[in-house]
Amino acid sequence: MREPLRQKDVRHVLLLVSAVVFGLSAYANLSYFFLGNPKALALFPPFIEGYNQNHNAHLGAEYFFIAQALAAGKGFSNPFQVETGPTAWMPPLYCYFLALLLLFSSSKFVVGSVVVFCKNLVLIAVGMMLYVVAKKTTRKIKPLWVIAIYCAFLANYFRWFFQITHDEWVLLLIVSAVFYFAAILSETAVSVRPACR
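User: That's the sequence. What structure does it adopt?
Assistant: Structure tokens below.
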């Protein structure tokens, strides 16, 4: 028989996954403090002296330029930082999110920080979802092993998850939300019976 979810275990896993995600994120973003010391950049991936691989201020380039146009009232346009007019170049969700953030702060640093924070929350939520799924479905592998594999996966794809701010975390959020709501629907066991017999 599978063990029930215990609140204490869930809290411990939440702390573990949060520590790994925020720890890796902090490590990735520390490189910004060493831009004046090119030799110190060798301490951060890709471990090349004088080369900062962190592109968290990039914000998806075309996404960010379209968001700037949206925030300036020019509509969904100008993906290349020049006046090119209306476009359908990029999917709209991330652009609108960035435009909303730009309405509150025009600082690229602040917008980038919020995006990194939201991305970290999504990665933590995915880790917790993996734990719950493993706890409910498997007998052969311990759920903590699933979390260990997930944390190793995050570390292995360090650059993609912690040094780039693109739209992949929004896609991960959408897929996770669909999975979560599908799990809720399957647990509620809704039955459709004919009204008349």
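The two ends are 39 Å apart (CA to CA).
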